[in-house]
Structure formats: C-alpha cells, structure tokens
Write a structure and sequence with these properties.
single chain, about 500 residues, mainly alpha
Length: about 500
C-alpha cells in the first residue's frame, strides 16, 4: 500500500475508535492521538518529498500509485503529490490538530460531532492526494456532505437556513463541476481510450480549444463557488457565522482551499488554451470579490461575519493570482491559501473561545478584553496583524508575492485590476484595527465580563499551534516557496 493512502486510512481508523468510545475521555484520546499521527505523517511527507527533489527526482508527481477501481470507465484509485498538494496536506493536518483542541468541550453529542468532523477531513485529505478526476470529485463530495449536519445540529443562530443555503449552493457548484469532468473525460484521448487520470489527460493534450472554451468556465466556476468567487459567495458568510468553532476553522481554513487547488489542478492545468482566452472574465469577478469582501467586512458588527467577509476577500485574492498565469503570482496564490488557512483558523478559534465566555459575538457589546483575558487578546492581535499583511507574518509574504507577480503584466487591464486589488490591504487594515481597538482596548461594556477567565490549557495549545505556523511561514518562507514554484512551473509550461 502506498503510504499516501494513510491520509485516508488514519481518519477511518479514528472513526472506528470514536464509534467504540464509551465516554468523553476516550473520545478525546482517539481524536488527539489520531490528529497527532496525521500531523506527523504530513510533516514526514514534506521531508520525504524534499529529499526526493534534492536527490534529483524530477517527476511531475512523486509517490504515484494507482489501483483499478471501475474498469468500464477506466477509473482508478490514483494518488500522487507535488509541491502544492504536499503544502495543502500540511495545512490540513495543522488545522485538524488545532480544531480538535478547540472542540475540547463540544456539546451536545460529542462522539457524533467528531465522527462527522473526521469524515470531513477524509474528504479534504483524499482530495489533495488524488490524481484521478473521479476519485477527486468523490472526495470533494465527501468533504461537503458533513457540513450540513455539522452546522444544522451543532451550529448557532439561524443555523438551519445557513446549512441549507451552504449545501444547495455548493451542490450547485458540484453540478457544474460534474458536467465539466465528464466533458474532459470524453475528450481525454484521440484514440477513444478515455481516462480520468489527470497526468494522462495532460500528456494526451487531446481536448480541442473550442471544447475547452465550454469546459473551462464550468470547472472554474464549479471550484470557484467553493472558493467564494463573486457572485457565488453568499453561502460563505452565513455558513461561517452559524458553524461551531472547529467547523468554521476547517471550513475557512481548508475546505475553501479545495476551490483554489481544483482551479490549479483541473481548470488551468488541463485546459491551458481556454485559460489564456477566458482568464480576463474570471479576473473581473475575482477582482470584485477582493474589494467587495473587504468593504463588507468594514460594516459588520458580528465577529464571525467580519472574518467571513474577510475570507471572501482573501480567497478572491487566491483566484485572482491564479488567473495571472505566471509563476510568481501563482506561487503567491498557494502561499495565500496557506496563510489564509492558518490565520482564519486562528481567528475562528479565538472568536469561539471569546464567545464561549461572553456569549456574544457583537463588537458593540464587548470592550476592554485585553485586561480581562490577555492571552486571547494578544493572540487576536497577532491574527489581525497577519491578516492585514504585517511583515514577519504569513500574510505579508503571500500578498507581496501575488502583487509582484500581477505587476509583471504590463498591459493596462491587468495593471488597473492589480492596483484595485492592492487597495484591499488598506481596507483590511481599517476593519482589523477597528475591531482590535473596540474589542480589546475600548471601555468594558458589560461589568459581568470582568469576572471572566482567560484561556485554558487546551485552548492555549490550539492557538499557539496556529500562531507558530503563521509566524514560521512569514519568517522562513523560502523553502516552501521554492517547493511550490517548482511544481507550478510544470503548469506554466503548458500555457
């Protein structure tokens, strides 16, 4: 068995362990041990990948293995990783690990909650290791389905509406995606030997340009819906606002990255001519996402809604960079996926911890928290600084790489869009500093808040894990940037 399959097998064993668990202690033990093993496996995969590259292995995908699954349609369970997918696996493992500790006291039905959460992680890990279109789509659906129950049962506020809206819109995106995948399959070969394998489809290069012009919008929009691309973004703020803490962390930190990764791996890689031809349309939509998300965050009063609209802006920036179709910008897109995943997961973890104490998410009802809960407040400031792009943290590296890559286009259209996207940094600074000033340094609005306690040990572990990752990516970005850019080069060569 290929060791990449352990990313799917370990969560399955965790689900079995959870099903057999009799009490809260056993549930927590299974979740902690399983997520720790996954994190170590992800770190080990990064080390092995880098060792292979240093040793001179120039294959497009490493650790490739495939097993026939359904012969009539030539569907394989096929796995393999490059620099992009290795980085995504590490991101997912870090957030799952932090999410377990953020959900330490989840009520009600803790066993069922962790079962669905682990099922979601199976879909995420399986998606990133798949190099077969059908298995990729299957894992994509596995990641989406648990969201309805996780929000509808364990969520808050108008949770039923939010869960239904999220599910319907993402399933609508899946419908577009399925049509696109079938179109790619039936044009994957000139000799009638059709395949779902991404590497073989790229090698055959058999999809006619006029067919690409139809299939590219379907696949890009299909994945773009999950990446909160305008005007298909409306599910995201409502879904985030109603979801429990760990689900928000996984949802914003990892699940939305499936959209950006899919655009890389399927839309751009398999249909390069259409990408060149139609990129300008999608660029306008993603440019709107960047500005709209930032401006919308400025007028929100609910902490989760502020962070949700911030995610729309930052994820819009990912798709914006992908469509620039050059190595620098696309490297920045992957760095932005990593950066946004880590800092957004940190934001939602902290918001959940603050809400658990104050029982409100409205910034107008809180103030002076820096004196009351200094640890959580300092962590929130660090997350805010990462979001607005402070040098030394992950946001700066990602956004600077994107904008440098975007400015490599010398035509007026790309320059104007890039300048407009750059203004989002200013707007981000406005709403982040507004929240920090009001929430942490303002006057205490509720006298009962003075009696609140600071973070517990498991909350500190969750927050510190994410802060170390954010600071590490921002301070020592060279190795991961090189790893990513070498993989992006293979995509660029097809354009």
């Amino acid at each position: 068995m290929n060791f990449l399959s352990l990313f799917v097998l370990i969560p399955l064993l965790m689900m079995l362990g959870l099903a057999l668990s009799k009490n809260m202690k056993q549930i927590r033990t299974v979740a902690v041990v399983g997520s720790t093993i996954q994190l170590l496996l992800a770190i080990g995969t990064v080390v092995l990948y880098l060792q292979e590259r240093v040793a001179g292995n120039t294959d497009e995908m490493l650790f490739v293995a495939k097993t026939m699954w359904f012969a009539p349609l030539n569907i394989h369970y096929a796995v393999g990783v490059d620099g992009i997918s290795v980085a995504m696996l590490l991101l997912s493992a870090i957030i799952v690990f932090a999410g377990v500790f953020a959900s330490w006291k989840i009520q009600p039905l803790p066993k069922e909650f962790f079962l669905w959460l682990i099922l979601l992680s199976i879909g995420v890990f399986g998606f990133f290791i798949s190099i077969d279109l059908f298995t990729m789509f299957m894992f994509y659906e596995v990641a989406l389905i648990p969201m309805y129950l996780l929000i509808g049962v364990w969520g808050s506020g108008n949770k039923n509406y939010s869960a239904m809206k999220l599910t319907l819109m993402l399933m609508g995106g899946s419908a577009f995606l399925l049509v696109g995948i079938l179109g790619i399959y039936f044009h994957s070969s000139v000799d009638g030997n059709f395949t779902m394998n991404i590497l073989e489809i790229a090698k055959n290069n058999a999809i006619p340009p006029f067919v690409q012009n139809y299939l590219f919008p379907l696949t890009f929009v299909g994945f773009g819906v999950l990446g909160a691309m305008f005007p298909f973004h409306t599910w995201s703020p409502d879904g985030h606002a109603s979801a429990p803490t760990a689900v928000s962390m996984l949802h914003a930190g990892v699940l939305m990255k499936l959209g950006g990764y899919g655009c890389f791996r399927v839309a751009i890689y398999l249909m390069p001519q259409a990408a060149q031809e139609l990129a300008w349309i999608c660029l306008i939509l993603t440019g709107i996402s960047v500005g709209y998300g930032a401006f919308s965050a400025c007028v929100q009063k609910d902490l989760k809604y502020i962070n949700a609209y911030s995610s729309v802006s930052h994820c819009g920036l990912v798709l914006f960079a992908i469509l620039m179709l050059n190595t620098t910008a696309m490297t920045g897109a992957v760095l932005q996926m990593l950066s946004h995943g880590l800092m957004t997961a940190l934001f939602f973890a902290l918001i959940g911890m603050i809400y658990g104490r104050t029982h409100t998410r409205m910034i107008t009802e809180m103030g002076g928290l820096m004196k009351i809960m200094p640890f959580l407040s300092v962590c929130y400031v660090i997350a805010g600084f990462a979001s607005l792009g402070l040098p030394g943290l992950s946001g700066f590296i990602a956004e600077m790489t994107i904008f440098v890559g975007s400015f490599q286009h010398t035509d007026t259209f790309h320059r104007v869009l890039t300048i407009l996207a750059c203004t989002s940094i200013v707007i981000t600074a406005v709403y982040i500093l507004r929240v920090v000033g009001k929430l942490l340094y303002g006057k205490v609005q509720n006298e009962h808040h003075r009696e609140l306690t600071d973070a517990t040990w498991f909350e500190k572990l969750s927050a510190v894990t994410l802060i170390v990752a954010v600071a590490g990516l921002g301070s020592v970005p060279g190795w991961i940037s090189d790893m990513i850019s070498k993989s992006i080069t293979t995509i660029i060569e097809r354009l």
